[in-house]
What we know:
Structural class: alpha/beta
Number of strands: 15
Number of helices: 11
Helix content: 25-40%
CATH topology of the largest domain: Aspartate Aminotransferase, domain 2
Radius of gyration: 26 Å
Strand content: 15-25%
Shape: globular
Oligomer: single chain
Order of helices and strands: HHEHHEHEHEHEHEEEEEHEEHEEEH
Largest sheet: 7 strands, mixed
CATH architecture of the largest domain: 3-Layer(aba) Sandwich
Amino acid sequence: MRFLPHTDEDRRQMLETIGVSSVDALFADIPERFHLQPGSLKLPPAASEAAIVRSFRQAAEANRHAGNTRCFLGGGTYHHFIPAAIDYVILRGEFLTAYTPYQPEISQGTLQALFEFQTMIARLTGMDVANASMYDAATATAEAALMARRITRRDKVLLAGSVNPRYRAVTRNYLSRLDGDCDILATPPFTTDAEALAQHIDARTACVIVQYPDFYGTVYSLAPLRAACDTHGALLVVCFSDATAFGLIEAPGAMGADIVVGSGQALGIPMGFGGPHIGLFACRQRFVRQMPGRVCGMTEDRHGKRGFVLTLSTREQHIRREKATSNICSNQGLMCTANACYLALLGDAGLREVAARSHAALARLVQSLPAGVQAAAGPRYHETVLSFADQQARERFLTAARAADIFAGIPLEHLEPGLPARHLLVATTEMIEQADVDEYLALLEQYA
Length: 448
């Protein structure tokens, strides 16, 4: 059924008011050769709604995605199991909005969910306080750099080369119109050398930004960086891509981080072809007034009853621009609720099991690689780089893997141009079973 609200009489009156004789006259400035003639698009005849739905469903079933394949993709977005209860909760009318809860008297449920989310993220990262989320990990990293500049009143930002390339690119873009330096520090291939990075920190440094585990999955000690930051008065900013790691390894806060940022996608949010995801942001209590975004707090009303409010909201829309810490417009409220549901459902033990299974799957894969394929050295969480003899060997393997419904990894030169086209970034999660690893290894043995 067509929905055309304007009648012929409506159109006649509108054309008469603006002084033209027909709708075609509105397009008189467009050369005739660009006009579409009736029938020139060769569209199929009209179909019923049922027929259109069936056609789209058939097309969708041809798509290959993480849900109907074996997925070894990583690089910042991961295929984890999502409990069914999460969708049930976030699709309820009370939560199905991203609108800012300005009026606490009618937003207690939303505000409490955000308050619980902040508590969980602060605990997970080992920090004192977390905000009510950012857009994504890349912009959260950039905001952390700006925050460090404000706190230290210095203008030099150091970025480790082992930070996710997308986080680096966004941060450099944020800082590109400001005075000061944003230096990318080279790291050894597919790992992080914290002691070497620490040598670059000096009295001009506002912060050093590292990823932990790094972009290639390396787990390492932050102690040398913490010591150098203490010596020179700089801040240590730690970012991450998969928050499930902290169910197994030590949290950044426990290792001395001043600001911790990253992605919450792994905590109950689907890959979604890249979004919507969520950025997490936590810091030390003494820096809270320089933190971007919003902070929800718990208080009491005049009758002594518990209530929740927006405690801090230091953005341009709320306060004078020169006092604002950010111009971020909205948090990812619905994604916060998904994160909070996921962490509440799994608890400490469940998150630890997810992390352990994710790591174990990678360990099984790496320890049985054929002679022609090498894994990056050093301790890893659930991600690593596989290096092939040449590009041809890698492409033979990827072609065979696609035919077997396996997303085998990301060609690393797609994310880091300039690298030889023979490396593959590979990640495992608890969704990878022993049989999946065995088939992956069999294809490597046969084609690589």
